Amino acid sequence: MRPIALFLLAALAAFAVACDSSAVQRDANVTPVSERRAAPAFAVPNLRGGPEITLEQFAGKPLLINFWASWCEPCKQETPTLATFARETPDVPVLGIAANDAPDEARRFAEAANVGFALAVDRKGDLAERFGATGIPTSFLIDARGQVAATWPGEITRPELDALVAALASG
């Protein structure tokens, strides 16, 4: 019985490390240009009111799209990083899309977190699904031609964001 307990304890520890995105920085790789797919076109409600937000609004420049939710703990952890990145990297706009979330809850969270970047809502998660997100948070780096250059499942750190943008710029 003791070897089984030790095995289970070791497996649990390995699982905990694998699930902790802060434990290991992942490689920031962008998809080669020849293998990129077009980002799905969209028009989504602006979380703050006003006109819908579309992919076309960002044409000609890179864009970081982050699917998140107010009830998601990793999303809460990465929000300050995204807000700082958006302020310090104006050449790469950030669009946060609250997926599978109540708009009022998402709006309250964004206001409390002092989010300054563009925010939209994907109430049922349909757009997240079209992009291929398998969970939240998930970020997509879109190149200036409107193609998906990178997908980042899970919480993203500032060094990882910077590495992705640098990789996009270099090719």
How would you describe this structure to a colleague?
It is built from five helices and eight strands; from the N terminus they run H-E-E-E-E-H-E-H-E-H-E-E-H. 35% of the residues are buried. The model is unreliable at 2-24 (pLDDT under 50). The chain is globular, with a radius of gyration of 17 Å. Helix content is 37%, strand content 20%. It is of the alpha/beta class and 171 residues long.
Per DSSP, what share of the residues sits in E-state strands of 2 or more residues?
15-25%
Q: Note the main sheet.
A: 6 strands, mixed
Helicity, as a percent range: 25-40%
**Alpha carbon gap, first and last residue:** 54 Å
Mean pLDDT: 87
Q: Per the principal axes of the C-alpha atoms, what is the gross shape?
A: globular
Rg measurement, Å: 17 Å
Helix/strand-derived category reads alpha/beta
Strand order of the largest sheet: 1-8-7-4-5-6
- The stretches of 5 or more residues where confidence is low (pLDDT under 50) are 2-24
Number of helices: 5
According to DSSP, the number of beta strands is: 8
SSE succession: HEEEEHEHEHEEH
